[in-house]
């Protein structure tokens, strides 16, 4: 078996493991990395871009090097498929994303706005205190759309391109961005490198997510809205995912968001009505379809590589 074929089979096996088991409940590798990154930050933090560059490079480079070592140690067809499958399972979050979306749907369908507000923190960092049911529905749909790329499409693409090192390095980049990439007073300079690295790592996956959303939702306005509105979002990547979802679901996304007292006004995407509670389940179904499609595309790309 060629290495590329083992990589493709490992990616598909990892997607299957994520579909059956979701994220490990204890000892999740991403959580362990996050704790290590937090400890490293306490030691090296400084209000400078240079320190942030060294911090991000050391952590991401170390994880990538570990992935290279794992692939070299794994000898034989079964071992190669196995380590790729386990790495894929460890970094994928598609199933957990869908579960969180459905949890929000159940609370909102039951009229339990208070619990829905508390649960929203599992999906995004917005302040839910003043959100009504429709506002929570919009936040959930937008988060599911954006995170379909981060949680599923991007790791699969980097796994197809670079195997275990690509899988692990991508998740390290994404985790560091979540930890230090916010534009707060503390991380304005120190988190700059992590944020820019995440933008670069997600540039192609976000656009692939938009195209796969169009493919999974034929006979909708997804392509038109993606082309027209995808570049209007302040993020270079999130807008592609949200615009495609808006067109596919026939809703209008964007508007005013609050993040711990900081208010952002984002351009609206799509021509439909505002999202409603019923749209949350539709967004989760679309996200799952895009994830499956991404798995097939990325595994196929890996299979045909001459490696």
From TrEMBL:
It comes from Actinomadura parmotrematis. It is found in: Cell membrane. It comes from the Bacteria. The chain crosses the membrane at residues 52-70. The gene is cobD. Its main location: membrane. It is a multi-pass membrane protein. This is Cobalamin biosynthesis protein CobD. InterPro entries: Cobalamin_biosynth_CobD/CbiB. Pfam families: CobD_Cbib. Converts cobyric acid to cobinamide by the addition of aminopropanol on the F carboxylic group. Pathway: Cofactor biosynthesis; adenosylcobalamin biosynthesis. The keyword Lipoprotein does not apply. Belongs to the CobD/CbiB family. Keywords: Cell membrane, Cobalamin biosynthesis, Membrane, Transmembrane, Transmembrane helix.
């Amino acid at each position: 078996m060629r290495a590329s074929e083992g990589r493709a089979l490992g990616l598909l096996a990892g997607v299957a493991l994520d579909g059956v088991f979701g994220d490990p409940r204890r000892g999740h590798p991403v959580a362990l990395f996050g704790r290590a990154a937090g400890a490293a930050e306490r030691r090296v933090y400084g209000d400078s871009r240079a320190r942030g560059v060294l911090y991000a490079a050391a952590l991401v480079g170390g994880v990538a090097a570990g992935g290279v070592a794992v692939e070299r140690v794994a000898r034989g067809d079964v071992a190669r498929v196995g380590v790729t499958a386990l790495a894929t399972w460890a970094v994928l979050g598609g199933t957990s994303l869908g579960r969180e979306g459905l949890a929000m749907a159940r609370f909102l369908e039951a009229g339990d706005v208070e619990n829905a507000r508390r649960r929203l923190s599992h999906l995004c960092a917005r302040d839910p205190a003043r959100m009504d049911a429709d506002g929570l529905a919009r936040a959930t749909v937008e988060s599911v759309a954006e995170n379909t790329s981060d949680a599923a499409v991007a790791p699969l693409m980097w796994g197809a391109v670079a195997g275990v090192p690509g899988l692990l390095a991508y998740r390290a980049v994404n985790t560091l961005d979540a930890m230090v990439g916010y534009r707060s007073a503390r991380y304005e300079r120190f988190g700059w490198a992590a944020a820019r690295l995440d933008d670069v790592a997600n540039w192609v996956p976000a656009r692939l997510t938009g195209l796969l959303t169009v493919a999974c939702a034929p006979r909708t306005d997804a392509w038109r809205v993606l082309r027209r509105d995808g570049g209007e979002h302040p993020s270079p990547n999130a807008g592609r995912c949200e615009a495609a979802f808006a067109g596919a679901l026939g809703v209008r996304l964007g508007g005013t968001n609050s993040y711990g007292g900081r208010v952002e006004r984002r351009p609206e995407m799509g021509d439909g009505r505002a999202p409603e509670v019923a749209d949350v389940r539709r967004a989760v179904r679309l996200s799952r379809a895009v994830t499956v499609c991404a798995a097939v595309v990325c595994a196929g790309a890996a299979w045909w590589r001459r490696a």
